[in-house]
Amino acid sequence: MLNIYQWSKTDKQTKKMILDRAMFDIASIQDYVSGWIETIQKEGDEAIVKYTRKFDNKDFNLKDLRVKKSDIKKAYKVVEPKVIEVIERQISLSRQNALSKSRQETVLKSFIPGVQVGYKITPIESVGLAVPAGQVPLPSVMQILAVTAKAAGVERVIACFPPTGDYPEMLIAADLAGVDEAYRVGGIAGIVAMAYGTETIKPVLKIAGPGSIYTQAAKMLVFGKVVIDMVAGPSEAVILADAYANPTYCAADILARAEHAPDAAGVLITYSEKLAQETKKEIERQIIYLKRSEIIEKSLNKYSCAIVVKDWQEAIELTNEYSPEHLEILVDDPFAVLPQIKNAGSIFLGNFAPVAVGDYASGTNHILPTGFWSKMASAVSIETFQKSSEVQYITREGLENLEEIVDVVSGIEKLDAHWNSVNVRINKKKRLWDQIKERRVL
């Protein structure tokens, strides 16, 4: 059921498939996604309805596109108070974590007399959140994105999710987390609507959120019209384990990733053949009790696997090369391993930190880079929804202290007006660059 690969004996094509995982699929669908982008740009709301009826809800009508206040009130009536209380607690932890990363709005420092330089942080004015809900409701994704955006100070936060079912918990999470507008449209259509706008949906400046390879391909293709957070595709986790790790834990955590989707990835990396074999047996024992076993089996046969390497050092190197969305370190002293980890979206230390806790309860952000993007991107955070402006305050003394640099460099670059904009303020009699040119001639 779980493929076990002896890495030194694995062929190059198989290695590439494992390391590329779902990213491999994105390139093959770009033309298809581009076609839908063009259609939705031209036809607006009409195309939104066409798309949604085709993929999410055959009975969808335009009047259902925007979530109304009455819909939210109804949601509170049908969801049990205990569930609402838990969502509130979840949001409280998420908000505290987001705000812990906040910085001063304006910071100025002086490194030379008369000159203060620094930055001013301001929120992006409008952002759109892509919230998947194709098979099951995901209020955890709704709340973590919205809470973080609002903690950053974003004035207009909209959320788009597919209308594949009656998900009142999604609406409650959106309401409690501060979403200003919610729309029942997902996938490619949701991304295009947020990027370009339709008759009903006003466009935003940045889009963030996870989703299928179609959603991620759409995000990549609308980049330029809007900014995006990163590629956050099908869920994935590496379990980095030594010979003493508990195979029951390893198996459970692989299954937890695999149940997300057929193209999700749960990967064990270890130097212990025994651990790999015992983990495989544990998966076969545990899977029969799980509701989404059919999806899990597809995932286990696609990108999920156990990889056996020659030693611990190679295990570390392969983990960094894989650069997973989630990384569990199952060793007695995970803090000793942590400094060696270069690439991972979110890191879980020790035997009692399964990824599921980060998904739901700890308050850390679980919208993370996938498909080796953790080599160059970070988890969604308050900074995702902010931007930084460079700031400088300069007195006459400061300008005089900097004039020589402007003089010479503007001379090299042949931009005399640059130096002139300084000189009209300080009225220097003779330019240094002219003296340098004179010496060159002599």
Automatic annotation (TrEMBL):
A single GO BP: L-histidine biosynthetic process
One Pfam family recorded for the sequence: Histidinol_dh
Entry-linked InterPro entries: Ald_DH/histidinol_DH (IPR016161), Histidinol_DH_CS (IPR001692), Histidinol_DH_monofunct (IPR022695), Hstdl_DH (IPR012131)
PROSITE patterns for the chain: HISOL_DEHYDROGENASE
Gene Ontology MF: a single term: metal ion binding
Statement: the UniProt record of this protein carries the keyword Transport: no
GO cellular component: cytoplasm
Cofactor(s) listed: Zn(2+)
Superkingdom assignment: Bacteria
Protein keywords: Metal-binding, Oxidoreductase, Zinc
Membrane-spanning residues: none
Active-site residues, as the UniProt record annotates them: E325, H326
Family: Belongs to the histidinol dehydrogenase family.
NCBIfam families: hisD
Protein's UniProt name: Histidinol dehydrogenase
Organism listed in the record: Candidatus Gottesmanbacteria bacterium RIFCSPLOWO2_01_FULL_39_12b
